[in-house]
Amino acid sequence: MMSGTGSAGREERLAAAFIELADTLVDNFDILDFLHTLTEHAVDLLRVEAAGVILLDARGRLVDATASDETTRLLELAQIQWEEGPCRDCARGGRPVDADLKDADVRQRWPRFTQWALARGFTGVAGVPLRLRAEVIGALNLFHIASGVLSPGDLRLGQALADAATIGLLQHRAVHDRTVLHSQIRSAQDSRIVLERAKGLLAEHTGLSLDEAFTRMRRHARLHRMLLTDLATAVVDGSASLEEIARSSPTSAS
Amino acid sequence: MSRDELTRFLTRLRRAADDGRDLSAASAATAARLLSVQGLTLSLRATSGALEPLWGTSTDEHAPGLEELQYTLGEGPTVDAARTGHTVIAADLTDRAAAERWPVLTAAPTSSPHAVIAVPLRLGVVTAGVLTGYRTTPGPFTPTQRLDLDAFARIALNLLLNTPPRTLAVPRPGTAPRPDVSLRRAQVHRAAGFLSSRLDITVEDALLRLRAHAFSHDRPLADVARDVLADRLHLTPDV
């Protein structure tokens, strides 16, 4: 595995990592890909052998999980299922954890997790929350084979990477929510445009008033269990029978 | 004095947006006055890319004639801001730079020496609409004025996003759509539908036909639309 510390160009890689983690406002943003990038940077820049990350929703349910390698990813998922482990505790509590897996306390706290991690040669695990102020959206786990706990410098840098990723994710989420609102409003306006056009068209074709044309379209749509917008679209593109719609008078509808 | 008033106005609107209010919370006339422009409009881009005016100062005032002309001709600062996602400024529509950039618009008979600033309403990588300020006097927009317009544009977008889609989608029979936030050119779209049936052409072509007539007769598009619907104006398929 890569251990980036001390090698040439570390500062550039550090800068590149932060820039990449801030770049979430792109067209083809993919959350899993982004989380995977975070774990790759962690393994590259810190003295750790593997990294995993989980994202939780507001109720603490798992949204996404990924890791620098497949076995670690399974461990991330297992923490949710087992309801134990540093990533889960860190995401729930919003505070960093740093544990020596040989400690008896740690084994007692996370029996299944510890057994699994030790079996794969890891001796220590740290977790830093993905957190912005009061909002905790997940956690980053850092697995290493050096004895004891992670160095304070690495833990700080790990937290900094997690912070950058959190800001990126929250920003993306905010923009995503607003984008959804925007597309709803835009499609409402699109509907209105086609409806007004259909009213004018039907009124000219049948000699009905605009209001009456609208009333008959509504009645026809209701009678045939169609969306008014779909009917209006059919009127405008010529695929609806205007005579039939015009016959949707109160007497024929009842 | 008026800066304080602007600050208070923006603060109030920010709060209104946080409370879930929509654009009807913002008086266009007040906004225009405090931002030192004579006309102010907000257009939302339809999925087709076409701009639809949604909110703004009254259509009788200076600005919308020019705004309508931009839609009619398909060129101008607002159109460019929507397309590029950047603020577009025309300090004087009678100068050479403007003439080179928008040859038809600046040559149009109704084009008077206006200064125009068009601020895109951006949502991530998408341009949702454009806020356009019109001034009857030529000259640059000061940095302060630009910042104020930017601040207002950001708040206006937040208000816009609070618009209940239903109020935009379907006018309920018997009740007029709310005057502040609705499709401003409903009449034009009705007339386009009407004309498409009359001339047996597509609605898009009918819309072009209406615009061409408005432009060549130097009349507001809304007036042409009204006359077509009232059967007072009989357009032929060719211009």
What does this structure look like?
The complex is a heterodimer of chains A (254) and B (239). With 254 residues, chain A is α+β, with helices and mostly antiparallel strands. Chain A contains eleven helices and five strands, in the order ααββααβααββααααα. Chain A has a five-stranded antiparallel beta sheet, with helices on both faces. In chain A, a hairpin with a 2-residue loop joins β4 and β5. In chain A, α1 runs parallel beside α7 (152-206), α7 (152-206) crosses α8 and α7 (152-206) crosses α9 (228-237). The radius of gyration of chain A is 29 Å and the shape is elongated. Chain A starts with 9 loop residues before the first helix and ends with a helix. The model of chain A is unreliable at 1-5 (pLDDT under 50). Chain B is α+β, with helices and mostly antiparallel strands. Chain B has two domains: 3-165, Beta-Lactamase; 186-229, Arc Repressor Mutant, subunit A, CATH 1.10.10. A five-stranded antiparallel beta sheet of chain B has the order 2-1-5-4-3, sandwiched between helices. In chain B, a hairpin with a 5-residue loop joins β1 (39-45) and β2 (51-56). The longest helix of chain B is centred in the middle third of the chain and has 19 residues, at 143-161. In chain B, 46% of the residues are buried. The interface between A and B is large, with 37 and 38 residues.
- Uncertain segments of chain B are 173-177
Share of β-strand residues of chain A: 5-15%
Order of helices and strands of chain A: HHEEHHEHHEEHHHHH
Radius of gyration computed on alpha carbons of chain B: 18 Å
The major β-sheet of chain B equals: 5 strands, antiparallel
Name the overall outline of chain B: globular
Number of DSSP E strands of chain B: 5
Cα separation of the termini of chain A: 76 Å
Can you tell me the CATH architecture of the largest domain in chain B?
Answer: 2-Layer Sandwich
Helix content of chain B: 40-55%
Question: What portion of residues of chain A is helical?
Answer: 55-70%
Q: Please tell me what the overall shape of chain A is.
A: elongated
Taking pLDDT < 50 over at least 5 consecutive residues as the criterion, the unreliable ranges of chain A are 1-5
